[in-house]
Design goal:
Helix 3 crosses helix 5. The protein is globular and about 40 Å long. It is built from five helices and ten strands, in the order αααββββαββββββα. The protein folds into two domains: about 50 residues; about 130 residues, 3-Layer(aba) Sandwich (Protein Transport Mog1p, Chain A). It is α+β, with helices and mostly antiparallel strands.
């Protein structure tokens, strides 16, 4: 009898936690986010700090700089199974932060375009779709992502658009012999993992 009662309590606790997480997720998707900017430290009614998209500034954001930082270089080497031979000095031109990762058999360029509104972000994201072509969507990456016709990946998150340009890599890359699209998706997932909370 005690075991049955204990199992019931455990199930109830697990179900309660699941319902709370589910309701919190629905709240964030439906009512917890809006198009109006809010102060960076605004506190949601549940007592959690809400993430706010920041408009482009005169210098690159911390999250944009992450794509070329030593920590990202280490993370990407681990994910791809191959270290870059060099990472070129990043550039910051017209709110585009970019650097090239050189490898023994090719190169990959990572760039982050910083914008100041949802409309600007959508327009830039769409312009890359027109420029590079869209082969297929990437579901669950950022707030929208697609593989280009050359195997690169474009990802949007908040007011930023990440381009992982793998067109300079061989058709099969690294010890796992990954194609360009797989490589670009792996890089995109890794970068967005670094952006969490940034």
């Amino acid at each position: 009898m005690k075991n049955a009662h204990r199992r019931t309590r455990v199930r109830y606790a697990a179900a309660s936690a699941f319902v709370f997480v589910l309701l919190l997720g629905v709240w964030l998707l439906v009512g917890g986010t809006g198009s109006e900017p809010r102060p960076a430290a605004s506190v949601a009614s549940a007592g959690t700090t809400r993430h706010v998209a920041e408009p482009a500034g005169p210098t690159p954001s911390e999250s944009a700089q992450m794509v070329c930082a030593p920590e990202a270089q280490k993370d990407l080497a681990s994910v791809l199974g191959v270290s870059s031979t060099a990472v070129e000095t990043p550039t910051w031109v017209d709110h585009l932060y970019s650097c090239r990762y050189d490898y023994a058999d090719g190169a990959m360029t990572l760039s982050v375009k910083e914008l100041s509104s949802k409309a600007q972000t959508s327009a830039y994201f769409d312009s890359l779709r027109t420029q590079f072509g869209k082969k297929r969507p990437v579901v669950g990456l950022g707030q929208g992502a697609f593989v280009t016709t050359n195997g690169s990946v474009v990802v949007r998150k908040d007011y930023k658009v990440l381009l992982v340009d793998t067109s300079g890599l061989p058709a099969r890359f690294g010890p796992f012999s990954a194609n360009r699209a797989k490589t670009a998706i792996d890089v995109g997932v890794t970068v967005l993992g670094c952006w969490t909370g940034a």
